[in-house]
Amino acid sequence: MSNDRHTAEVSEPTADSADGTVDRRSDETGEQAIGVDTDSGRPATDGPDTAETILAVEGLEKSFGGITAVDGVSFDVERGTITGLIGPNGAGKSTTFNLVTGVNAPDAGVVRFDGTDITGWQPDEIARRGLVRSFQIARELEGMTVIENVMLAPPDQVGERFWSAVLPGLRGQVTQQEKQLRERAWETLEFFELDHLADEQAGSLSGGQRKLLEMARVLMTDPEMILLDEPMAGVNPTLEEKLLDRLHELQERGYTFLFVEHDMDVVMNHCDPVVVLHQGQVLAEGDPATVRNDERVLEAYLGGRGPMSRSQGESLLTVRGLDAGYGSLQVLSDIDLDVGTGEYVTIVGPNGAGKSTVMRTVFGLADYMDGEIQFDDETIHGLRPDQIITRGLNYVPQSDNVFAGLTVRENLEMGAYILDELPEKRLESIYDRFPILRERAGQPAGSLSGGQQQMLAMGRALMLDPELLLLDEPSAGLAPDLVEETLDRVDRINDAGTAILMVEQNATEALRRCDRGYVLVDGRNRYEDAGDTLLEDQQVREQFLGG
Predict the structure, then answer these.
(1) Whole-prediction pTM value?
(2) Is the domain of 364 the same as that of 402?
(3) CATH for 372
(4) Is 449 helix (H, G, I), strand (E, B) or coil?
(5) 274-278 and 82-86 as β-strands: parallel, antiparallel, unpaired?
(6) pLDDT, tens digit, for every residue of 24-63?
(7) CB under 8 Å to 147, separation ≥6 — which residues?
């Protein structure tokens, strides 16, 4: 697939189009960007003929509570490129997207789009300027057809105004604009090969078709640059190829993309340049080959070094043929997994592989679709989380894992809420395991550091003395010196007899500590073996940065 960029001059967003929307990308003939080239059946747009910066991110910083999510991020995006933004879980990719598109305001730094400082602008203001985004999980407007979903996208439609329903002259404008919008929407659906579904309910589309529908809606806003958040997540290989083809065709017509994607083969084959984030900072940037061969990047994805592992007991958790996801979006396919009594098992894999969804499904939080989940020889799929807890299994999520407005002690007490009386001896044992929690017992949990909040979350989950503890990314967002300390605490919990099933971004550290490991890729088991064996497998290493 070609990456050649065919470009031409882009007009300033000064003229309103005939249908009432802002026409940013008209050429000398007045042909609209979201129109259709009659020869190719594709969006008829042209792009710039010289490389220039369209997006400049300078020194962005953002903290949430005591956790720094983005720490001085700076990079440029050239007009007409597909730029990849990658990094391990917790690197700051989504937060960077949110800062650029106005979802969150930065604590420091500047965002410039097409030469204009847009720092602090609202998302709708940024979108009107020509910078729009998609989301990882595409959401359609239920109860509406596919073409109606697309027609709603352009801003500032005449029909949105109150008087348009009252004044006869405006009603005529509404009718004319709706006709023009329907023509544009149909042409856009044809480009994405969704026109045969135009009158179907949008809620009936597959996950991949919803991604195409979201792209169609994005194009109807006449953007100059599009930020794509995990565009290939949940998309089958056939639709993935179609979506990539469309992205390159749009690139050739001058559209610019900033692309967060977990599939490293997609990134390395279709993005240039690539920017790598790690712990909220830019770690590396350059062409795909340079980034792939950078030892710092591989270290960021696989992590550091740690001690070796232990042994397996009788079967405690058994997962067979598990399919699961969120609504109609299937994330997991045919997952098999076992955890023995007292065993330490780690799940690793590239971003978006479905690791956290495994944990959430076992704990009753994601949507179970098919398969078998047994804990201590009892079927537990279909049970609520509060019912699962009583069986001896508990879960520590990656984020939002403390009650920020409650004190440390109140958080721990919440861990034993199903009991008639607070087990004081158990509370004391938690304080003994995490002494800082005793010191901060009366302090609001929201004022704790990231590492202290992680201790509190684990302590609360241990209040009922579970047989199996599910840990989702316990080191995410922590400073490097706290990562080893946190994983040491997990070791000690396991040494005391509690079985561990852990998802961890620091793959090297996790695999060296665990008894066994699973490598997930695209929602499926790819490898299973002893942790140290997986660590030395070159094929496993390649899963994190593409083949």
Answers:
(1) 0.56
(2) yes
(3) 3.40.50.300
(4) coil
(5) parallel
(6) 443 433 334 444 333 333 333 344 444 699 999 999 999 8
(7) 182, 185, 186, 189, 198, 199
